[in-house]
Design goal:
- The complex is a heterodimer of chains A (about 400) and B (about 240).
- Chain A is of the alpha+beta class.
- Chain A is built from 12 helices and 12 strands.
- In chain A, a hairpin with a 2-residue loop joins strand 2 and strand 3.
- In chain A, helix 2 crosses helix 10, helix 8 packs parallel to helix 11 and helix 10 runs antiparallel to helix 11.
- Chain B has about 240 residues and is α/β, with parallel strands linked by helices.
- Chain B has one domain: P-loop containing nucleotide triphosphate hydrolases (Rossmann fold).
- In chain B, the strands form 2 sheets. A 6-stranded mixed beta sheet of chain B has the order 6-7-8-3-9-10, with helices on both faces. Chain B has a 4-stranded antiparallel beta sheet with strand order 2-1-4-5, with helices on one face.
- The longest helix of chain B is centred in the last third of the chain and has 16 residues.
- Chain B is globular and about 50 Å long.
- The relative contact order of chain B is 0.18.
- Classes of the chains: A alpha+beta (about 400), B alpha/beta (about 240).
- At the A-B interface, helix 1, helix 9 and helix 12 of A face helix 2 and helix 3 of B.
């Protein structure tokens, strides 16, 4: 019996019970579609986060006070860390030759007011280097001065803040109050939108020492270091850690690179995708039970036919393969339908959330397809063996 | 052609052995036309199943075409059924979703005959039973007589040596039954060994000789012209 004959015979048997075949096929289709859609979601989340972090720049080193491990360990042990200060920043700028730019970051929340308009805003204190490290652009006016010494009382507004405080007005040159401080607006940032969950358009930017005094902080929140090239990143990280260890007499800062953050997040979100895929795969197993059920019904309905096939000279193996072929065709067709439905669902999802780069990973598509066939073969074995073992006499005598 | 020696077949029914056949010895020559008669439960169908290698005897020897087949494995029996034996059943046993042509092709599908040869041979077999214009009809579009003739074409398309028929006219009106018997006789005339199980004396009369089973044993062997003797025995049994 050739493979083509086998498929043709199985297909005739399946199309003889259209509704029943369609329903058990639907089970597999739902399972495969679920695998495709859920892994696409997980993969979309992973790619989204990756894109966000890649906007940091691949040769940026982030220094933060305190020892934090992304790979475990209990933070907070080892005593109170020393302050990360502007003096440390100057020491790094002078002492580590591969550093091309370095910018401090101090953050807090304060009320900004112009006339009778007020608004609670996040305030970031930094220097001009931040503009280049984060590839920001100024829409109007100028940015902060480069030096951290005697600072002028100036502020750069985010796009949203500028629009709400100065509707229809040019804010550059105006004087605003931030908390108890009077500051002159020297520029407005170009819109940057939401990045890593933070809307940068709602920030106001002030000189770093001013921010530290404003919020009564002795330590910087972060120091962002741009290294001349990606290749020098590890060496620069080691140099910064050595320098700060010498200055603080212990290693009490954490140096993060984009690569380290991405590796950590990638493995977490990769595991999430795998888990989502696994949950969806369970529904495939359920679909397999459905196929087994339908095939068992089919075998008991066709007992007489099995006897006839044997009387006509069909061997045990041929009877087995006829019923196995039916089960595999059912699940295979379900797999094809499921893939189609899954991909359409992903496109619909992207239509609703264009920002989410959802796409099912190749491994999930391959695994779902292979699994759908295996489900048919695996759950089809029992009914097919039952058909194979039917005694032709007993099978024929039943009417 | 067929040689049975001391054939017994015991079934286990609810823990008790039931002897369907006891010590049956019979020889059927090539080209013979034998009718098997007997009341219900006398073992006719069991005998036919053993002859057709659908069932194995519990004891005894069965030689078919010079080959001992009684205790062969499934694989060999499949080949015997495929190549040496044709079956016709009372209820036709056509596959309902396949056309007449496809039903006739079925044994060749399992035998691995290439599609083109299959089509030609099936068409010739249908033509030989006068159904060339019904090839694309499904069983539910055919009359009973036509269905049985399709079944006959299917049973003979592999060129078997023996044709076994279980009440071939039992479910047909008399005109259709005569047509089917005509085909059977023609096949027999061309050399095919024919064994027919029947209740019908008209069918038995058209055979060469009649074997009567009673309680699993051969009770009487008569020429077809003396089938009345069997009728008398059966009438005596019924009394």
């Amino acid at each position: 019996m050739s493979g083509r004959d086998l498929l043709a015979f199985a297909l005739r048997a399946l199309t003889g019970h259209r509704l029943r075949s369609a329903l058990s096929l639907l089970g597999v289709a739902i399972g495969v579609a679920a695998v495709v859609l859920l892994t696409a979601l997980g993969e979309g989340a992973r790619r989204y986060v990756t894109q966000q972090f890649e906007s940091l720049g691949s040769n940026v080193l982030i220094v933060m006070p305190g020892r934090v491990e992304t790979t475990g360990g209990v933070p907070g042990f080892g005593g109170v860390p020393n302050d990360l200060t502007l003096a440390d920043l100057e020491a790094i700028r002078r002492g580590v030759p591969s550093v091309s730019r370095i910018a401090p970051l101090a953050v807090g929340t304060e009320t900004i007011a112009f006339g009778d308009r007020r608004r609670q805003v996040p305030v970031a204190g930094t220097t001009r280097d931040m503009l280049d490290i984060r590839h920001l652009t100024v829409a109007r006016g100028d940015y902060l001065p480069r030096e951290t010494g005697r600072e002028p009382a100036v502020v750069v507004l985010g796009q949203t803040v500028a629009n709400e405080l100065f509707p229809g007005l040019d804010p550059v040159g105006q004087v605003v109050r931030i908390g108890a401080w009077r500051m002159r607006v020297i520029g407005v940032n170009a819109s940057r939108g939401v990045q890593m969950g933070t809307n940068f358009d709602e920030f106001v930017i002030v000189p770093v020492a001013t921010a530290m005094r404003m919020f009564d902080r002795s330590s910087l929140f972060r120091v962002l270091i741009e290294v001349r090239s990606h290749g020098e990143l590890d060496q620069a990280k080691a140099a910064v850690e050595a320098l700060l260890t010498a200055r603080h007499r212990e290693l009490d800062v954490t140096c993060l690179t984009q690569d380290a953050v991405l590796t950590g997040l990638n493995s977490i979100l990769g595991a999430l995708t795998l888990a989502l895929g696994g949950i969806a795969a369970v529904s495939l197993a359920v679909a397999g039970v459905g196929i087994m059920n339908v095939m068992l019904i089919s075998v008991s309905e066709r007992t007489r036919e099995v006897g006839l096939l044997k009387a006509l000279g069909a061997g045990r193996r041929q009877v087995l393969s006829v019923f196995l072929a039916e089960a595999v065709m059912l699940s295979g067709a379900g797999g094809v339908v499921g893939l189609a439905v899954g991909f359409v669902a992903v496109q619909v999802l992207i239509g609703f959330y264009p920002g989410l780069p959802a796409r099912p990973p190749l491994w999930a598509v391959v695994a779902a397809s292979v699994l759908s066939l295996l489900v048919g073969a695996g759950f089809g074995v029992l009914p097919a063996r039952r058909a194979m073992r039917l005694e032709p006499v007993a099978a024929l005598s039943r009417r | 052609m067929i040689r049975l020696e001391g054939i017994s077949r015991t079934f286990d029914v609810g823990g008790r052995p039931v002897r369907a056949l006891q010590d049956v010895t019979e020889t059927i020559a090539a080209g013979e036309h034998v009718a098997v008669m007997g009341p219900s439960g006398s073992g006719k169908s069991t005998l036919l199943n053993i002859l057709g290698c659908l069932d194995r005897p519990s004891a005894g020897s069965y030689t078919l075409d010079g080959r001992e087949v009684a205790q062969q494995g499934d694989g060999e029996l499949t080949l015997v059924r495929r190549n040496l034996i044709g079956f016709v059943f009372q209820f036709f046993h056509l596959v309902p979703r396949l056309t007449a042509q496809e039903n006739v092709e079925l044994p060749m599908v399992f035998a691995g005959v290439p599609p083109r040869e299959r089509r030609d041979r099936a068409a010739a077999a249908l033509a030989s039973v006068g159904l060339e214009d019904r090839a694309t009809h499904r069983p539910d579009q055919l009359s009973g007589g036509e269905r049985q003739r399709v079944a006959l074409a299917r049973a003979t398309v592999m060129g078997p040596r023996v044709l076994l028929a279980d009440e071939p006219t039992g479910n047909l009106d008399s005109a259709s039954g005569r047509q089917v018997l005509d085909v059977l006789e023609r096949l027999n005339a061309s050399g095919l060994t024919l064994v027919v199980v029947t209740h019908d004396f008209k069918v038995a009369r058209r055979s060469g000789r009649v074997v009567m089973l009673l309680d699993g044993r051969i009770a009487k062997r008569v020429a077809a012209s003396h089938v009345q003797e069997i009728a008398d025995v059966l009438a005596g049994e019924a009394r």
